[in-house]
Structure formats: C-alpha cells, structure tokens
Amino acid sequence: MSRAKISVVPSATGAPACPSGELRAPIRPLDLDWVEAVRVNLSAVERRIDSLPGRRTVKKEWQAAWLLKAITLMDLTTLAGDDTDGRVERLCAKARNPVRRDLLAALGALDLPIRVGAVCVYHDFVAIAAQALAGTGIEIAAVSTGFPAGHAPMETKLREIAASVEAGATEIDIVISRKYVLTSQWRALYDEVKAYREACGPAHMKAILATGELGSIRKIGQASMVAMQAGADFIKTSTGMEPVNATLPVSLVMMRMIRDYHERTGTLIGFKPAGGITNAKTALGYLALVKEELGDEWLSPGLFRFGASRLLGDIERQLEHHVTGAYSAANRHPMA
Q1: At 60, phi and psi to the nearest 5?
Q2: With CB atoms 3.0 to 4.6 Å apart as the test, which of 125, 126, 317, 327 could cross-link to 88 if both were Cys?
Q3: Catalytic one among 75, 272, 291, 314?
Q4: From its phi and psi, is residue 325 left (phi > 0), alpha (psi between -120 and 50) or beta?
C-alpha cells in the first residue's frame, strides 16, 4: 500500500453507489464453458498472500486515514439470538456516529462524512433499522433465504426477501444452497440465485457463498462466477457462522473472479469479506489487497464492504492511540 493519504469520501465513480442508483449488475445467461474453465493455483495464491505484509505497510497519519476509510466501508452487523429492538436502535446510533467526536476533532475529520456503509440485521429488525436510519444515507441490509444454512423451502425464501424489501431493506444478503456447489449443479445454483435477484426488486443483492463449506478453492471460484452471471451485485465470503469464514487467500480468488468478470463483460461487481475480521490490522490487509487486485474504484461503499460486528471497536481504539499515544480499554468504544 503506497504511503499516500486516501480520501475517506465515497468516490463518485460509475459503480453502483447505493441501491437507489440506476446501475445494477445485469442478469446474464449462464455460460457453463466459462464456469468449467475456472482454474485456481493454490500455491500461487498462498505465495501472493504471503508477500503482502512484507511489501505493504502504512503508518501514522496515513494509517489513520485508511482506518477512517475502512469505517465507511463497513456493514455494521448484529445477528444474535438475543437481539432486541433496543440493541438495534443503539447499533444504528453507532452507525450514524461511529467515532467519538473528540477523536474526529483531533484528527481534523469533523467535517468528513464518517459513517458506516450499512447496518445488517435479521428481517424482524429491518423496520426498526429503517426508522432509526431514515435520511442518513446508510443502507439497511437484511440477511435472508434461510440464513445462515439456507435450508428452507424456496417459496419461503422468496417470501422472506419480499417481506424484507417491503419493510425497508435496501440490500439483501442471500445464502446459496451449498449442495449445488458441492455436487457441481451449476444450472441449479444459477436458477436459485437468479430467482433471489428477481425477488429483490430494487434492493441490491449480496450472494453469500459460505466459502468455508464449499469443498475446494476451485469451487469457490466457480460459485463466484455463477453468482455474478445470475445477477449478484456483490459476492460475499461467509455468513460469519461457518467454522472458517473470510480469509485472504479465498478473498484473492474471489477478487480475481470479479476482475475477470469485469474484463470480459464490463460489469462492476462488489466484494464483501465477512466473519473473523475483528481488528484494524486485518482490515488494512484487505484494503491493500483490494487496491492492488481491483483498483481504487473498488474502494467505495458501492463495491466493497466489510461484514463486521467487532471491527469498529478496534479501529476506534487504534485511532485513539494515534491521537493520544496510548491504548484505551475497549469499554471506551461501545458498539451499542
């Protein structure tokens, strides 16, 4: 990562900046030859990732700028069994003001639009989040289609999507049926994701691949390609509830699929790593990889998101360390 400041203001590119925009990933016919042609050299992937920390580092005020940028790319998430209306309302308050004002003042960032990209919740809390975030420009994302396992009747999944959009969701995070990937039923996977996309209507769709359960690195690449052809606006690594969630090697493979898809079709597809990204250092690694593999255009909320429930607290601690020279206790930066 070059030692240059990065703007924390969302970029004005041709990318779909928000669900209210007109640009969407089109649904394309399934190209099975393209899917079958996907190959992944795992050793090369691992070498590429191993080289990243030694070549890319960012310190001092440059690091602070990149961490502020990371906040604007965050899907602030609560997907717990004990979620309540009050917890979601408090999370939305944090989404609107993710960093303490005294820290922003010390960083000279009080006038910057520092807010998260979206709040991600279960369907039951979509209306609460929509009311709490009205007029802020922060998206409301709902996990859907039998999240996290996806084992529900298709009719139920489609009704769930429609209900969340009607309640105010502007983004839908769907889960695919892993069985289709594990058994190479690419037509069935395509038809499933296409049906989800059509049910989303105006809401942008993120296709969760659950990469830790797909069996091989090649199948991750193939599933990525099928989901993009079926109209996914984003491809996402994980639900956050699998034994293995987002990793840099898997993310590299998915980014390469996005890059290949863009080169061949001209379509910009977003990427969302989720699960296990809990500290600022890890987030900086992902930002470096996105910058190198996809380019600056992808460093915007319309094309890159972190799925995060704990990341924001550590970023805020790192920003306080930059300002004061000392690390504070985590309870000084509550999430909700």
Answers
A1: 55, -130
A2: 125
A3: 272
A4: left
Token pair 């909700």 is found at 336
Q: d(Cα 181, Cα 164) in Å, to the nearest integer?
A: 26
Q: What is the CATH number of domain 32-324?
A: 3.20.20.70
Catalytic choice (194, 206, 236, 291): 236
Q: CA 298 to CA 49: how far, in whole Å? A: 19
Q: At what angle do helices 311-324 and 280-293 cross, to 10 degrees?
A: 100
Nearest to 142 by CA among 116, 117, 166, 170: 170
The partner residues of 171 in beta bridges, in order of sequence, read 141, 204
Q: Which of 75, 157, 173, 206 is catalytic?
A: 173
3-state secondary structure of 236: strand
What lies within 8 Å, CB to CB, of 69 at 6+ separation is 6, 7, 8, 287, 299
Instruction: Mark whether 173 is an active-site residue.
Output: yes
What's the pTM value of the predicted model, to 2 decimals? Answer: 0.91
Using CA atoms of 178, 308, 169, 10 in order, give the dihedral in degrees to the nearest 10.
-120
- Amino acid 8 reads V
